[in-house]
Amino acid sequence: MAQVSESLTSDSSQEVGLDPVSLGILWDRLVSIVDEGLSAMVRASFSMVVRESYDLSVVLLDSDGHLIAQSTQSIPSFTGSTPDTLAHMLRRYPPSTLRPGDVLATNDPWMGTGHVYDISVMRPVFREDRIVAYAMSISHLPDIGGLGFGSGASEIYQEGLRLPVIRIAEKSCFLPFIEDLVRSNVRAPEQVLGDIKANVACNEVVGRQVLDFMDEYRMDDLRLLSQAILARTEATTRSRISEIPDGTYESSIAVEGVDDDVTLACRIDVAGDTLMADFNGTNPCVPQGINVPFVFTRSYSLFALKCLTVSELPNNSGFAAPIEIKAPEGSILNARPPFPTAARHTIGYFTVPLIFGTLAQALPGRVQADSAMINVLTVRGTDPSGHPFITLYQSSGGLGAAEGHDGTATTSTPASIAVIPTEAWERLTGVTVIRRGLIPDSGGVGAARGGLGQYTDLRNDTTSPIHLDVLGFRTAHPARGFLGGHPGTPRENRINGKLLPHKGHFVLQPGDCLTRLEAGGGGFGNPAERAADRVLEDVRSGFVTAESARRDYGVEM
To answer: What is the pTM assigned to this prediction?
Structure first.
């Protein structure tokens, strides 16, 4: 302990005064602190969106606004946007104006995470009279008013309550006006306010533990530790980028919009230890709520590049230092007000497979075939006891395969959101999960097979209509296979057997059944190269039918 403490006051080593072992210990401690804050938020939350789905993140930033630790369970769009969010907050409330117990928040799409449903809550961490860090937590709210969490809005003003950077607490007390404002604008005020206050409690826990951590290691501030973390991460990132052959790489993909397909284009320039990704050539914004603020585009672009370079390192701002992300203003990947953005994930998620596809020739052993991704459904109605509810229901398609690795079945990506347990779902909503299972042959064939999708049947067993906002994709454009692999099967949503449009608002009457058929992930490599014993094992496991084994792999049962 003393050796670590002493090293924090010396700049004698390459690691800004920290030997690698000490740095690893302290770095892990910071991650454990934000993990503890996340646990506090989950325990204090009121909605299934936070409590069961973990649609949230917790981060710690240093006094200069650099992200130095994120919770293990995190959403890329949340963690990638927090340094920008903090900068917006500090422009509105400079550090000199903040006091212990102040809490700031915003859900503005262009200051936060890209849509009004996510709220970013920040508390400065004071050590005596100095700010030494900022604790920030972000969570998806069950409701924010407006038309609801769908793609139906034609401008941002229809999508609900939009909060600029505001002070929501002083001296650790929640401001009554803010509570009244939120309560007057949302459909589920107890859940929404409960979740916002859970964010406040989370930041309190993080702030208290940061101070205990600093006392334990006799630190006056976090700057030296922050510099060491950022420097180590940046150096490793530059080294990994240097392994990519210099050059310009380009690709494009088509994605389901609302009325028409949307084309997303990408060019990646690699020069030495730096990388630039430019989405020039992407289609312009549309008058539906699928437009993507640049902060979301940048966050998921960084996520994709991190997967290909330093996936093993805990995330922090050092990773982004040698990387530049661009998108033309006015394009669907760099929307500006008043374009609506509620369903920005239905387009923005595709920056991940787009970047993988762009670098497929440069990094064939690292990229992953397209994944089917998570399928988010907004559900609101009245439960059997007569109480209104609003929540999300998530189910996932299969993960794309990679060289030597089959894609896993029904895996949430690129947002790491959990599936609500059936028991909790049925108790809250009165909607019964009739059946759920894997769909054989849904994963794209290849030397490595794509992950399977799943089917889910949901029946409205309440006495009232249930309102659904469907935000589907991978319906007309299934997950692509890479380097000879085949695509997965597409996604479908049906009510009583009738196929639904991929996006829209629908009503599930009492007794009606919603069927969700999730897409399969893409395959990787030539299917003729898949070993016969692996094909036979797939057939025995029910992942592949005997017909597919014979037709697609040339293996007779």
So the answer is: 0.95
